[in-house]
Amino acid sequence: DENMACFEPCCFVHHSSFLIELEEFVSKYGSSSSSLEESLSNIQKLLVTHFYNHSPMFTPKHMGVAQGFSGFTVFWIHLVIPGCNLSRTQFPKAYFYKTDGHISFLCLDSHMQNYKDSKLRMVAGNRLKEIVEVIKTHAA
Question: 36-52 and 16-29 helices cross at what angle (nearest 10)?
Fold first, then answer.
């Protein structure tokens, strides 16, 4: 599956709609040198370092545990996209689901698009249900 990338000790399994949202953001606000692949690769490497190498890469200003996902470990993060000439507050906010061996981005939106966090959380909740099923079959 093109949505999966495994790095020891973690597999990334992203919601397909997240990849579309990230690609649209990068193509709209990035430079000609930025790409979806580079952006995703950078984010994934930083998360592996943060969570699995126990070398914190993110402060509470940039990443935190999202509330209200009933027993699922969901985080929010402000994504820094290489080659985007944006201020810190303009980078997109994304939600991702984390298990012991998987990290799954669910959705993203940005103040550049006047997002409402409550709406983004609702989208994350809906996509979480789908990605949980995908991971069950991936882990088997």
Answer: 120
Token readout for 79 is 């994504």
Tokens of 93: 């906010």
| Spatial distance between the Cα atoms of 108 and 89, rounded to a whole number of angstroms | 14
Q: pLDDT tens across 4-29, in order?
A: 666 667 789 999 999 999 999 988 88
Bridge partners of 10, per DSSP, are 7
Query: What is the C-alpha to C-alpha distance for residues 92 and 39, in angstroms, rounded to an integer?
Result: 12
Integer Cα distance of 23 and 37 in angstroms: 9
Q: Could you read off the pLDDT of 71-112 as tens digits, one per residue?
A: 899 999 998 887 787 887 788 999 999 998 899 999 999 877
In one letter, which amino acid is 2? E
Residues 6+ apart with CB under 8 A from 85: 29, 31
Strand pairing partners for 98? 103
Phi, psi of 61 (to 5 degrees): -75, -25
